[in-house]
Amino acid sequence: MFLEEVIGEVRLEDNTFECKGKLNRDDVVGWLKSIAGFANAQGGQFYIGVEDKTNKLIGFDKKDADNERNYFNNMVNEHLTPRPQLQIQFIPYTVRDKERFVIKINVLESNVKPVILRYKSIPSIFMRRDGYTNGATYEEIIQMSIQSKNTQYDLLVSDVKYDSSKFTKLQEFYKSHNKGKELSEKALKSMGFMDENGYLLNGALLFMDDYSDRKTASQCLAFAGTNKGSERIVTLKKYSGNIIDIINSLMDFVKQRMNYSIIKKGDRRINIEAYPERALFEGIINAIAHRDYYLDGTQIQLDMFKDRLEISSPGSFYRGEKIGKTYDLTGIISKRRNELISSILVACNVMESAGTGFDKITEEYENANESHKPYIYSSSDHFTLVLPDLTYIEGVTDNKYPDLIIPPIKNGTEHDEKVLSFCYYHARKVSEIADYLGMADSSYLRKQVLENLVSNGYLEKSKVARANYYKANQELIMLS
């Protein structure tokens, strides 16, 4: 029996059609690349249980077909990023009065390209052409990037259907911030929580009670001192689960470990928290809402030091420039990277629709002195909010410059080590570096010292407005 007898048309292997008798467990890349190639091209149909070239039906019984589909899904989830949109169905047929099944997988053209196949930590990009799947050419990769619709991760449709019983934690969270009101299914639909067929969007999956994938992974560290290099770690906690659990876990980690103090003013006592609760909450919500969920293997990083708290989120500011370091939080224009996730948090009254979360943080610190002012810095792969500990009298000072181990630098100068140490933890302007070195802001400093370090890869240069900022590349430099 052949495939054309079941589907009613004759198909030959071409750009949009391929068959496999069974998924090869010993050569996962051999068939996964076809799925990636279809998604990077025009899409295609992939049949399992059909002999290659002849289209002869091999098929499965119901149990084996289910196992084969589950294995297929697991491998796609593990190795393809972003996950292509797939429509999977069992096609039944009968042989000698026994029901058999082939698996039809309709691979849709990806809205976000290229789809990358990562196996044993090696990323590859494939393209379907002329009935074969091969590595994409440089020109094809560029073209894919140009043509990509740039759809946000949380707006892609999953293969999971909506079930109201799976969102009890979201409902409780919504009630606690909306005076006991319930989050209606109508409201969810209006936000785009699911598509017209009831399939959840990726962003909705992250709010499911039993969500357990690593897209929400977070790590919290508490250090005994003021830097990571030479201070011992007091506590390390790793969290995963749905977004509501992550918010609560991060809040609890800080609140259980932060300091409290009392200031006496006349006959009054003023209680001071190391980190104002509203500022802390806004910082955590911001990290979750603007995280780049396409970046697999990353995590929200929360680091507590003796003098400050740092909240880092994977991905730079969405469609924004790198920020070396700025205290002007209210001047940052942050565009939404995750529309659905942000809409849900806005509906829960924990995020402002106008994006004024940074304003609230500034308000909480408005009476603090200069060494206790919050600030933000960003690179190409993460952004970090720094909240000073209000109970630490010295504040966050800039006199903590680590000792470094630096290999010989081509055309190096006597200032290199001091510059890299000064710029190790924070990005600095040229004027700040000149003041620290006790020298003039000269062409010698800019070209022979700073630009030489940049060209050798030891300094990373970014620009905010008209000012250049320099930060040490920590991957090339070791702490002594």
Radius of gyration from the CA trace? 27 Å
Helix content: 25-40%
Kindly state the mean pLDDT as a whole number? 87
What's the structural domain tally?
Answer: 3
Q: How large is the count of helical segments?
A: 14
CATH fold call of the largest domain = Heat Shock Protein 90
How much of the residues is beta strand, in percent?
A: 25-35%
Shape: globular
Quickly describe the structure:
With 480 residues, this protein is an alpha+beta fold. It has helices at residues 3-7, 28-40, 62-79, 138-147, 168-176, 185-191, 202-205, 243-257, 277-289, 339-347, 357-364, 416-422, 430-437, 443-455; strands spanning 17-20, 44-48, 80-81, 86-95, 98-107, 116-119, 122-129, 132-135, 157-161, 199-201, 218-223, 233-239, 260-265, 268-273, 300-304, 308-314, 375-378, 382-388, 404-405, 428-429, 459-464, 467-472, 478-479.
Protein architecture, described:
The chain is an alpha+beta fold and 480 residues long. Helix content is 29%, strand content 25%. The protein is built from 14 helices and 23 strands. A hairpin with a 2-residue loop joins strand 6 and strand 7 (122-129). The relative contact order is 0.08.
Q: What tags apply to this protein structure?
A:
single chain, 480 residues, alpha+beta, Methyltransferase, Cobalt-precorrin-4 Transmethylase, Domain 2, Heat Shock Protein 90, Arc Repressor Mutant, subunit A, six-stranded mixed beta sheet, four-stranded mixed beta sheet, 14 helices, 23 strands, 29% helix
Task: Compile the SSE list and pairings.
Blueprint: H1 3-7, E1 17-20, H2 28-40, E2 44-48, H3 62-79, E3 80-81, E4 86-95, E5 98-107, E6 116-119, E7 122-129, E8 132-135, H4 138-147, E9 157-161, H5 168-176, H6 185-191, E10 199-201, H7 202-205, E11 218-223, E12 233-239, H8 243-257, E13 260-265, E14 268-273, H9 277-289, E15 300-304, E16 308-314, H10 339-347, H11 357-364, E17 375-378, E18 382-388, E19 404-405, H12 416-422, E20 428-429, H13 430-437, H14 443-455, E21 459-464, E22 467-472, E23 478-479
Parallel strand pairs: 1-2, 11-15
Antiparallel strand pairs: 2-5, 3-6, 4-5, 6-7, 7-8, 9-10, 11-12, 13-14, 15-16, 16-18, 17-18, 19-23, 20-22, 21-22
Helix pairs in contact: 8-9, 9-11
Domain Schlafen AlbA-2: 13-133
Pfam family, one: HATPase_c_4
InterPro entries: RecG_C_sf, Schlafen_AlbA_2_dom, Schlafen_AlbA_2_dom_sf
